């Protein structure tokens, strides 16, 4: 009995030594059956081997076909359409060119050189499509005399069309992604913090690059004279509107709107909240709030703004009252 057990253990050890999958299985809980991960690895390996074998077999068949069908180049159809030359280019010339160019690109560190095979491949594909389109009656000649050459030619033309279609799809996706990136992050010279406006707008006095909805509401309330809403927008703790935020269209701050539309009490509240008296509009005349009020004949607002130190350039260089001139 003991001798039998030893014999079974010896045979088991010998079987384990000859088990080439033992290291992959690593004592899987499935016992003699391999685990799911090991099976997946073996499946991938087998598929890769089959694929490589198929590619090698196809390449060998293509070479043999070219050698056997070389006389077709001397026929009338061969001279007119160049099916054999096309197959020679895609089977032999293009792969060799790719190897040589990639070696040169790696040696010279010039990535532009690596694009040469792609450009030539695109031209060869167009050549193949033209040949196929104008083959006409010669297709019967190749079908009868050189069927393998015709099959090889059609396979490469179809593969080339598929590759170009995929390349165009990838290019389209890349363009879409680039366009999305430009819209979200902006081009060089664009400051996306100011909603895609040209760089420099975020540096305008009172603009922090975030033209919030509250800022827009404050400008609208100042324009319409809604004092209660102005109070509410300016009194929020940590979330109050920016009293000097500019309108992206014309660079007007809330005080410009209040002065232009003769809303004195709104202007008083804005100044009390820190509105800058000497901020100019973005038009050619670069007007201050006081000048807008003067041009409109809003005497009440003019009197108030002058009382707090505002000035107009028409004053001929009046004292700024300690204010700092801001150019926008």
UniProtKB/TrEMBL annotation:
Residue ranges of the TM segments: 33-63, 83-105, 112-135, 155-183
Full protein name: Uncharacterized protein
Gene3D superfamilies given in the database record: Ankyrin repeat-containing domain
InterPro entries: Ank_Repeat/CDKN_Inhibitor, Ankyrin_rpt, Ankyrin_rpt-contain_sf
Native species: Cryptomonas curvata
Stretch forming the signal peptide: none
Pfam hit, one: Ank_2
UniProt-annotated stretches for the region Disordered: 194-216
Alphabetically ordered keywords of this record: ANK repeat, Membrane, Repeat, Transmembrane, Transmembrane helix
ANK repeats: 250-282
């Amino acid at each position: 009995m003991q001798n039998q057990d030893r014999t079974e253990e010896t045979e088991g050890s010998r079987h384990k030594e000859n088990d080439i999958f033992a290291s992959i299985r690593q004592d899987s809980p499935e016992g003699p059956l391999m685990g799911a991960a090991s099976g997946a690895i073996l499946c991938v390996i087998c598929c890769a081997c089959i694929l490589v074998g198929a590619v090698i077999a196809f390449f060998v068949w293509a070479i043999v076909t070219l050698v056997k069908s070389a006389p077709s180049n001397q026929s009338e159809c061969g001279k007119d359409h160049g099916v054999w030359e096309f197959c020679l280019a895609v089977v032999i010339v293009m792969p060799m060119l790719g190897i040589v160019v990639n070696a040169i690109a790696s040696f010279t560190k010039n990535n532009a050189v690596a694009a040469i095979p792609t450009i030539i491949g695109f031209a060869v594909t167009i050549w193949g499509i033209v040949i196929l389109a104008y083959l006409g009656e010669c297709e019967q000649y190749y079908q009868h005399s050189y069927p393998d050459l015709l099959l090889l030619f059609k396979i490469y033309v179809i593969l080339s069309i598929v590759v170009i279609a995929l390349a165009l799809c990838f290019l389209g996706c890349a363009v879409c992604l680039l366009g999305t990136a430009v819209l979200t992050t902006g081009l060089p010279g664009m400051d996306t913090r100011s909603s895609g406006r040209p760089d420099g707008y975020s540096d305008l006095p009172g603009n922090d690059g975030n033209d919030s909805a509250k800022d827009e509401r404050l400008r609208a309330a100042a324009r319409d004279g809604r004092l209660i809403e102005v109070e509410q927008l300016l009194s929020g703790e940590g979330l109050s509107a920016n009293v000097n935020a500019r309108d992206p269209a014309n660079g007007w701050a809330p005080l410009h709107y209040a002065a232009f539309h003769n809303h004195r009490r709104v202007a008083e509240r804005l100044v009390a909240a820190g509105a800058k008296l000497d901020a100019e509009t973005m038009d050619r005349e670069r007007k201050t709030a006081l000048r807008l009020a003067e041009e409109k004949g809003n005497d009440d607002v003019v009197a108030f703004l002058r009382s707090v130190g505002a000035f107009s350039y028409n004053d001929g260089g009046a004292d700024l009252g300690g204010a700092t001139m801001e150019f926008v």
